[in-house]
Design goal:
Helices cover about 40% and strands about 20% of the residues. It is an alpha/beta fold. The strands form three sheets. It has a six-stranded parallel beta sheet with strand order 2-1-3-4-5-11, sandwiched between helices. The protein is globular and about 75 Å long.
């Protein structure tokens, strides 16, 4: 049946209206948003900077003594320069070689120091006690001979510097009498007195050496008094195993000659200064610190360094010293460095004339560590009990 044209138009209009409405509905629908980009994973936080290694030093004298303690503190500064912010160093000066030293070491442990240097012989027993109670702390003891699992010892061959000074002294004396101000009569110091004498005798067999003991490492008034006593006994060239510049300055006041010890003491009395036998602790301190930082540090051992390792030298030799003597000292230094020269080599006689080393025998470290006698040419007696 055919539809009425009017009705068909109406139907067609309705259809178009329906389509339009549908299109409108589609146009009004929510537009699909593009997917949000996936947030990048946050960068991992930088690893925390390791805490610096805390290192402490206990000094027997003041840092300004110009000698022993001054040399140690210069080496402490060398650690700071070498390792920068990887380390923090500190020191306590004028720590007595007595029971109070134990309190100081315990305090240094309590402050968080994990590497501690005790820089004099008399700290040995206090350090052993504190080390036993502080197994996680590394201890280093200068000039001692007792070790533990977390404590090792280190020393410098000061007798090498003493011998070279002796060579100069033997050439410069007019009275053939040398004077030595001794600190404490332990093998280290007795060995230095003997080595000084042996060096002098190598160029002047007529040499005799007088010794005055002060029984302290640092006591300028006592050192002055001892030096004056030696001058009054005829000594015209003085040597010392004490820590201040008092001996050199006393020599200058009396128009005599003398040496610096442990550090370069030229500036204290240039007119009397012949040379300075110095210790450079920096090579050892830097090595010990590096080992503590990288985990290779080991306790229980002993180190003894000299000219060969750059720990001992004789410097600022005066223009008053003859050229041939300077050359002799340089030859000895080279021999000590390459091992071709030995100071303690027989035949060698003790003060009593008895042989202490047979011909061509070279003293080993055990022998050197137990020297408690004077060699021939040193006057007086080694104090009892040493």
């Amino acid at each position: 049946m055919r539809q009425d044209p009017t009705k068909r138009c109406l139907l067609q209009g309705a259809a178009w209206a329906t389509l339009a409405a549908s299109a409108a509905l589609l146009g009004c629908g929510k537009k699909e948003e593009p997917a949000a980009p996936v947030a990048a994973a946050p960068a991992s936080a930088a690893a925390p900077k390791p805490e610096p290694l805390k290192i402490a030093f206990a000094y027997v004298g003041p840092v300004g003594d110009g000698g022993w303690t001054f040399a140690h503190d210069n080496a402490r500064k060398a650690i700071d320069k070498e390792f920068g912010d990887k380390v923090v160093t500190s020191f306590v000066e004028k720590v007595p070689e007595a029971a109070d030293a134990e309190r100081v070491f315990r305090d240094l442990v309590g402050q968080g120091n994990t590497l501690i240097f005790g820089t004099t012989f008399g700290y040995m027993e206090p350090m052993l006690k504190v080390a036993a109670d502080s197994p996680n702390v590394k201890f280093e003891h200068a000039t001692g001979y007792k070790q533990a699992a977390n404590l090792r010892t280190y020393d410098s061959r000061t007798y090498e510097g003493a011998y070279m000074a002796g060579v100069i002294a033997g050439a410069m004396t007019k009275s053939n009498t040398l004077g030595v101000v001794g600190s404490i009569p332990i093998p280290e110091v007795i060995r230095n007195i003997n080595s000084f004498t042996l060096g002098a005798q190598s160029v002047n067999p007529k040499i005799k050496t007088k010794v005055v003991w002060v029984n302290e490492w640092f006591n300028p008034p006592k050192e002055t008094e001892a030096a004056q006593s030696l001058i009054n006994q005829g000594a015209d060239v003085l040597f010392q195993n004490t820590d201040s510049s008092a001996v050199l300055q006393t020599a200058a006041k009396n128009k005599k000659l003398a040496f610096g010890w442990d550090s370069d003491m030229t500036a204290y009395a240039p007119e009397a200064h012949l040379a300075s036998a110095i210790i450079n602790w920096a090579p050892y301190y830097i090595q010990a610190t590096r080992e503590a930082l990288d985990g290779s540090w080991k306790g229980g051992g002993a180190v003894w360094w000299g000219v060969k390792e750059g720990a001992i030298d004789i410097v600022s030799v005066s223009d008053k010293v003859p050229a041939d003597i300077k050359a002799k000292v340089d030859t000895i230094k080279a021999g000590l460095k390459d091992g071709s020269f030995s100071i303690w080599k027989g035949p060698m006689l003790g003060q009593d004339g008895k042989e202490v080393l047979a011909k061509d025998v070279v003293a080993d470290d055990k022998f050197l560590g137990g020297v408690k006698f004077y060699v021939k040419g040193v006057e007086g007696k080694v104090p009892a009990g040493n």
